[in-house]
Design a protein that fits this description.
alpha+beta; Alpha-Beta Plaits
């Protein structure tokens, strides 16, 4: 006898499947993700002074992150395409001047969460920074991309990250 898989994207036989969310109510959902890209202080100086040959790094990374979030359903197999209603990407440079912290949020009114969209926004923003700065810094590394929080339903109903097909 087959036992159901604890992974929502696998059936009892282990085959990949898209989760059916048609029975779930449409509610306001938001997810926040973070990550960082480590770099030399000299590279960070170039970014801040808008001296990178490819252009304004943070403006391009912000736009790329938002665009990536909007295309998440096309990029990740079995991920539901969602009509996200808001996406934001922001950056913070700590006093250590050795990295850029990236924060991405996504919001939707729908039957499934936007964790993947927030994570994609952060990842694509980090990859854009990497691409734009790679000629100046061969030591860059992207680290710590993670889901920070998600909410479902009424505002302020924060839930800790968990696995599953929500």
């Amino acid at each position: 006898m087959d036992t159901p898989s604890p992974l929502s994207h696998l059936d009892a036989a282990g085959n990949a499947r898209m989760v059916d969310v048609s029975h779930k109510p449409s509610v306001l959902r938001e997810a926040i993700a973070e990550g960082e890209i480590h770099m030399l202080a000299s590279t960070l100086d170039l970014v801040e002074q808008n001296q990178v040959a490819k252009g304004n790094v943070l403006a391009a990374a912000r736009l790329a992150g938002i665009m990536g979030a909007k295309k998440t359903g096309e990029l990740i197999p079995l991920c539901h395409p969602l009509p996200i209603t808001h996406c934001e990407v922001s950056f913070e440079i700590p006093e250590s001047r050795d990295r850029i912290r990236i924060r991405g949020s996504a919001r939707v009114q729908g039957p499934t969460g936007v964790e993947m969209e927030a994570l994609t926004a952060v990842t694509i923003a980090a990859l854009t920074i990497y691409d734009m700065c790679k000629a100046a810094d061969k030591t860059m590394r992207i680290e710590g991309v993670r889901l920070v929080s998600k909410t479902k339903g009424s505002p302020g109903a924060a839930q800790p990250p968990r696995s599953g097909g929500d």
